[in-house]
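User: Okay, second chain of the day. Same drill as before: sequence in, structure tokens out.
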Amino acid sequence: MPRSTDTHQLEKVKKVAIQLIVEKGYEKTTVADIAKVAGVATGYIYRHYKGKQAMIQQIFEERSLNFERIVDDILVQHTDMQQVIEKYVSEVFKNARENNVVYRFMFLIAQEKIFGKSGNRQQIIERVCNKIFDKGKSQFASTINAEIIQLVLLNLPQQFVEYRINDAGEFNNISAEDEYRILQICKRALLTER
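Assistant: Same drill. Structure tokens below.
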């Protein structure tokens, strides 16, 4: 009879993996490290994942799908692209403040060559950008396409926040004014003059 999966235990393993990646980096974190801190046997992790790369890839993709759900919710709630941009930028800063370890994990893993454009992450990003573009075509400047939306709306706020997070994963002076400036840059870059 197959063993049942303790979802709480598996979630704990994922949280520990995220924390250790942020603290030590991907290369220096081992499955044995994750198992030890999570209080499980190494074999427990290997029963659920082929290895460290598969585990981190799954966590990365799960969080990426969560990002897509957030954007989908914003697009359902707002038809005006100015409001969509405002809400999205606000969510980036809020998420970084409230979940800075997960936020830093996502940023670090996206920088790793083996994860950066692998799996479903790039498809999710492209899908999100196309949804935003399709919903707001008439409100965007004529030079804007889904790729530019990715560069400006997805990358700029995230890069700014990452720039302001120190090695300990804490914010270094991110103010409401900073958030406002990033918001204004995104709106000016993407929207037509009103």
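The two ends are 65 Å apart (CA to CA).

User: Thanks, on to the next one.
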